[in-house]
């Protein structure tokens, strides 16, 4: 049955098998340990849902000049992004005594196979991620367009992981009268500013030395700086990619929209 819903001769069973292999590789890596240590520094988590935006299609379309190796690499890249997301959910659940965390995913690029695959993993695919974000949510944005992340942080999620919010601010001048969808509005700028003022930022393990600035770093230079991370994740994570969680103090009230 699985075989019939999978395009490009990649059956669902292959995706599940590959995910298991990448998970094992990830969990054996020093980055997984560092990730656990980083998240457990914060002793009070109150998270009951996790939302991933922009994960992408697990069987990405080939460009005309891609070969089978490039196709496999890109599949590994996205499966590894998913592995890391699920590892963080697991760490947060364990830190809260095994609390159940509902998991949602949203991406207009999902195809039937992605939806079937995510369903098998207990992940609910939703149209509008923003509607599912509350103050007790972990939001993960593996390179989703910036405005989707900004829409999510409007709901003050307790944990956010994605491209540096500071960098997003630096790259987009707020406009009173935005002309294009990617122009930042003043309301979006106010949302990001408020978020930054109330959050602590921590780089993802292995990306600490990546500059959080417009200048960034060339890919060749980054590969030299973090060869283990690049090889392990198949280029899944790079750049100024950071966690944000609340500064110490009382936790925000929990909202329970669904
Ligand atoms: C640059 S790709 C990243 C894909 C993959 N995570 C990666 O790193 O290769 C951005 C992804 O965001 C998705 N996207 C665009 N708008 C979105 C939205 N409103 N909600 C969720 N995902 C969205 C796109 O379909 C695409 O899969």
From TrEMBL:
Domain SRR1-like: residue ranges: 44-192
Pfam family, one: SRR1
Protein name per Swiss-Prot or TrEMBL: SRR1-like domain-containing protein
Biological source species: Lophium mytilinum
């Amino acid at each position: 049955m699985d075989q019939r819903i999978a395009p490009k001769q990649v059956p669902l069973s292959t995706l599940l098998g590959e995910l298991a292999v990448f998970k094992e590789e990830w969990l054996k890596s020093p980055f997984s340990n560092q990730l656990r240590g980083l998240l457990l520094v914060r002793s009070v988590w109150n998270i009951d849902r996790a939302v991933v935006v922009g994960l992408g299609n697990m069987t990405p379309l080939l460009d005309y000049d891609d070969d089978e190796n490039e196709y496999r690499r890109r599949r590994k890249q996205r499966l590894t992004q998913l592995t890391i997301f699920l590892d963080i959910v697991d760490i947060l659940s364990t830190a809260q005594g095994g609390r159940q965390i509902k998991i949602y995913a949203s991406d207009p690029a999902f195809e039937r196979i992605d939806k079937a695959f995510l369903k098998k993993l207990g992940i609910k695919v939703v149209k509008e991620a923003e509607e599912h974000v509350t103050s007790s949510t972990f939001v993960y944005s593996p390179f989703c367009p910036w405005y989707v992340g900004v829409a999510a942080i409007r709901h003050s999620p307790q944990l956010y992981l994605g491209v540096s919010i500071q960098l997003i601010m630096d790259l987009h001048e707020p406009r009173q009268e935005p002309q294009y969808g990617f122009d930042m509005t003043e309301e979006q700028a106010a949302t990001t500013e408020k978020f930054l003022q109330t959050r602590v930022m921590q780089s993802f393990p292995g990306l600490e030395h990546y500059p959080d600035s417009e200048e960034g770093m060339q890919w060749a230079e980054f590969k030299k700086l973090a060869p283990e991370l690049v090889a392990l994740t198949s280029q899944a994570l790079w750049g100024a990619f950071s966690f944000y969680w609340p500064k110490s103090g009382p936790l925000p009230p929990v909202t329970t929209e669904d």
